[in-house]
Amino acid sequence: MFAPIVVTSRDGERRRDWSDGLARDGQRVILCAARDCPLLRGEHCDILGRAGAAVYDEETVGAELFLALVRTTVRPTILFARDAPSDGRHHARYTRVLERGMTAGSPHTR
């Protein structure tokens, strides 16, 4: 069984639609609203620690959380995305990747 994918957005509709798309592809998904995030306190995030990958909505997750993700040592590959609405639903358009173990430099774009 594959490790789950964390979908993080403060927008509940985006979180639901993005995760629904991944679930239709057979992925297990964990939803996160990034409220009271332990990474912002310099702590370990148990959800990220057991995830295979994570999708972060860069329109609703700010620079402070981005820096915390870069600095944390225990995390999966992070995919940053922007919303690309169509057909009455929200769809993730991936913009950047922060690979597992990458701690220096900027995330590359794809």
Count of DSSP-assigned helices = 3
Binned, the helix content reads 10-25%
Largest sheet: 6 strands, mixed
What is the end-to-end distance?
A: 27 Å
Spatial extent as radius of gyration: 13 Å
The total beta strand count reads 6
Name the overall outline. globular
Coarse structural class: alpha/beta
Q: What would the average pLDDT be, to the nearest integer?
A: 89
Low-pLDDT sequence parts = 104-110
Whole-number tally of structural domains: 1
* Order of helical and strand elements: EHEHEHEEE
Strand arrangement in the largest pleated sheet: 2-1-3-4-5-6
Question: Strand share of the residues?
Answer: 25-35%
State the gist of this model.
The chain has helices at residues 12-24, 46-49, 63-71; strands spanning 5-8, 29-32, 53-57, 77-83, 92-98, 108-109.
List keywords for this structure.
6 strands; globular; 24% helix; alpha/beta; 3 helices
What does it look like?
By secondary structure, this protein is α/β, with parallel strands linked by helices. The chain has one domain. 24% of the residues lie in helices and 26% in strands. It has helices spanning 12-24, 46-49, 63-71; strands at residues 5-8, 29-32, 53-57, 77-83, 92-98, 108-109. Strands 2-1-3-4-5-6 form a six-stranded mixed sheet, covered by helices on one side. The longest helix has 13 residues, at 12-24. It is globular and about 40 Å long.
